[in-house]
Structure prediction request, 371 residues.
Amino acid sequence: MSRAVQQMHPKKHPPRIMDVSIFCPSVKDLKKSFELWRDAFLVESTTALESSDDKWFSEMDSSKWMQNISRCLELTRMSMLEIEQGVSVILKEPGDRDLNCVMSALIQLCLDPSSRTLIGFQRLIEKEFVALGHRFQERLGLVRTDPEKEAPVFLFFLDCVFQLTVQYPASFEFTDVYLILLYDSSLMGAFRTFSMNCQRDFLSSRKGATSTAYPSAWQLDLTAKQNLTNRLYHSFDLLNRLSTTVPIIAAASPVTENLTPNSVIPFLTVWKHCYFRFIPPLALRGGIEQKMDKFIYRACDELESLCREIGMGSGGMAVIREEDGVSVDGDGQDSRGDEMRNEVIRRRADLVRPFTAHTAVASQSLMTFQK
Prediction:
């Protein structure tokens, strides 16, 4: 196989073989890791939660869940470096239907901006998990035939994606709420997308009466997707198109072509919206983040209104009338046009730092929410 890949390379360079079984955990180790990780979040009462404070972090560390995520992100980074240097990469794994799916999807997610959209991410899962025959039915335990074959491979992939969304908050069209929706949908057993073991089972489910019983997960009605789409993705796209005018904004959080994951464990974070949601005290504390999100959304709304004020359309071209004191091509601006442009720049710069300019207001709002 490696010889065939080398012959297909434009410069006949030999491929780099990445043994996933060496860099990443095995399915068995991943299952054991998640069981320990899950136990750290399973509490029977608030008293039990408080009593576990002194050993909670040690329990999470002993599960090695975050270490496993770090190893996969590091392999993603290494593979990206090889590809960026023009070297083909072959992922090698026994069975070729578990961690290979995860790694291939993560690499494409970092290299291909189109896969970071809602539609692109759905196509990525269809291609790397469904079409390549990831055993959803066995790994998710939808049919309890052999518990030893169960493993949270898909959840592990979604957690890795979540880490990327945290490190690059403006580069993904979807939020972690959408990732949680996908994970919950996979556990329902009601969608053929996450209910089959191979492509043959998937194709047979699309025929006859079973196609009605098992609809596709992508047929979910996402019309009311307020919490599923990332407002920063669209707003910073507008800011990037204005980078020549406001360079400080473009440098704040660019929508970059390639994403280089940071695999250092201190830079990773617990997926609180997913793991804390069934623990009422922790879920309530996580609501502060939603309060902060509202500040960001409000800033994005004001940004879009400002863009409309200066004639910034969806296509990114400023159409400002000559009689208003600003020329179309930006030349020959008078003092009135300069003052208007400087005012818009100042207001936009404040929007990127919504808490810096209004620290007292933001702090007071968060304190009120905590009370």
Observations:
- The CA atoms of residues 33 and 63 lie 5 Å apart.
- Residues 246-254, 314-334, 348-371 have pLDDT under 50 and may be disordered.
- The beta strands are 16-19, 89-92.
